[in-house]
């Protein structure tokens, strides 16, 4: 299982792997992967829980294993 992470670290990892933000409405920012087939919602909280971090990793299967460490 993953560990809690800062939202800025998650966003930086997504950008570093070619993902781009699609929209930011309400309490979440939606990101699209480089292949364009997968999206993931990242909550606008300072700290993202371990369960949500794991969910983000699963929603971006086209990214290499362990990209969010």
Record keyword descriptors for this entry.
single chain; globular; Metal Transport, Frataxin, Chain A; 69 residues; alpha+beta; two-stranded antiparallel ribbon; three-stranded antiparallel β-sheet
Task: Characterise the protein shown here.
The chain contains two helices and five strands, in the order βαββββα. It is α+β, with helices and mostly antiparallel strands and 69 residues long. It has a single domain, classed as 2-Layer Sandwich (Metal Transport, Frataxin, Chain A). The strands form two sheets. Strands 2-3-4 form a three-stranded antiparallel β-sheet. The protein has a two-stranded antiparallel ribbon with strand order 1-5. A hairpin with a 2-residue loop joins strand 2 and strand 3. The radius of gyration is 11 Å and the shape is globular. The mean pLDDT is 93.
Helix amount: 25-40%
Order of helices and strands: EHEEEEH
Kindly state the number of beta strands.
5
Structural class, from helix and strand content?
alpha+beta
Oligomer: single chain
Topology:
Elements: E1 5-6, H1 7-16, E2 20-25, E3 28-32, E4 39-43, E5 47-48, H2 50-59
Antiparallel strand pairs: 1-5, 2-3, 3-4
């Amino acid at each position: 299982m993953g560990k809690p992470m800062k939202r800025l670290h998650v966003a930086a990892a997504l950008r570093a792997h070619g993902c781009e933000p699609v929209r930011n409405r309400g309490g979440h920012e939606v990101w699209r992967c480089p292949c364009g087939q997968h999206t993931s919602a990242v909550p606008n909280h300072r700290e993202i829980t371990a369960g949500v971090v794991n969910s983000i990793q699963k929603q971006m299967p086209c990214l290499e294993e362990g990209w969010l460490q």
